[in-house]
């Protein structure tokens, strides 16, 4: 690429970014002329840049032709706010579970291709302690992911199921059977499927209409957590979620209860 082309491309990005920031920070939706003058960009050029931003859903126009945040950005902001509210509501559960079990607890929601790890409360042990926030955790090999798959919060992705360990389920038939057991039990278990020596159990978080919007898990090393321990903790997670949600219902008005939604196992 020629240096002039690179410079022109960089300038276009700088201009588009400046215009977008101006629109987002403006107390009132600005018009084309005002944006052109504010950034000393020819009106025709400003119009082309704004049109490109509009096509991508980053901005849109109101009835007067003024520009404001587009659906892509408003949807993102709304989701971030919802995530923050969910973290605040579920944090006491994570801390309680970590204290009672001594193991790491995690909160997750559906992500783009991977489980989106939102929050974590660390247990008392050093062995097995991992910061899962930001890690790419596949759905089919994690307890949290299996909850989201089992209750149709996300679909099973097309293509090959990645093999992470010798115990990872890579057969769709086996995975579907496993997800049926998840729905039957109300919680999901994994043993050595994500990492050798790692076990976990997770249970769902629901809205009032029954939709699963997230999951909470407990994980730790297999020498410390038997299958019996995981089953007991799975029931404990369900009880903790239901208890906290029930308390929040009694403190809120009926309208607010609907906004918070219901959590718990099927």
Automatic annotation (TrEMBL):
Keywords: DNA-binding, Transcription, Transcription regulation
Residues covered by the HTH iclR-type domain: 10-71
An example Gene Ontology biological process: negative regulation of DNA-templated transcription
Domain IclR-ED: 72-251
Gene Ontology molecular function: DNA binding; DNA-binding transcription factor activity
Pfam family, one: IclR_C
Database matches in PROSITE patterns: HTH_ICLR, ICLR_ED
Annotated protein name in UniProt: Unannotated protein
Lineage, highest ranks first: unclassified sequences, metagenomes, ecological metagenomes
């Amino acid at each position: 690429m020629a240096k002039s082309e690179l410079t022109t491309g960089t300038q276009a990005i700088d201009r588009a970014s400046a215009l977008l920031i101006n629109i987002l920070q403006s107390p009132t939706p600005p018009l084309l002329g005002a944006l052109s003058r504010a950034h000393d960009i020819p009106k025709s050029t400003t119009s082309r840049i704004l049109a490109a931003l509009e096509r991508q859903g980053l901005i849109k126009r109101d009835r007067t032709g003024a520009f404001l945040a587009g659906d892509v950005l408003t949807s993102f902001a709304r989701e971030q706010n919802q995530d923050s509210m969910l973290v605040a509501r579920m944090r006491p559960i994570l801390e309680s579970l970590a204290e009672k079990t001594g193991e790491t607890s995690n909160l997750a929601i559906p992500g783009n291709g991977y489980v989106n790890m939102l929050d974590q409360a660390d247990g008392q042990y050093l062995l097995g302690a991992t910061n899962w926030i930001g890690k790419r955790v596949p759905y089919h090999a994690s307890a949290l992911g299996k909850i989201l798959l089992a209750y149709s919060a996300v679909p099973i992705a097309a293509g090959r199921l990645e093999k992470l360990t010798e115990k990872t389920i890579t057969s769709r038939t086996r995975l579907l059977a496993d997800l049926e057991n998840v729905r039957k039990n109300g919680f999901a278990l994994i043993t050595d499927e994500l990492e050798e020596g790692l076990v976990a159990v997770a249970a769902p978080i629901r809205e009032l209409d029954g939709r699963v919007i997230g999951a909470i898990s407990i994980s730790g090393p297999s020498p410390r957590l038997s299958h019996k321990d995981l089953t007991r903790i799975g029931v404990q997670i369900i009880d903790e979620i239901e208890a906290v949600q029930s308390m929040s219902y009694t403190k809120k008005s009926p309208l607010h209860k609907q906004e918070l939604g219901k959590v718990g196992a099927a």
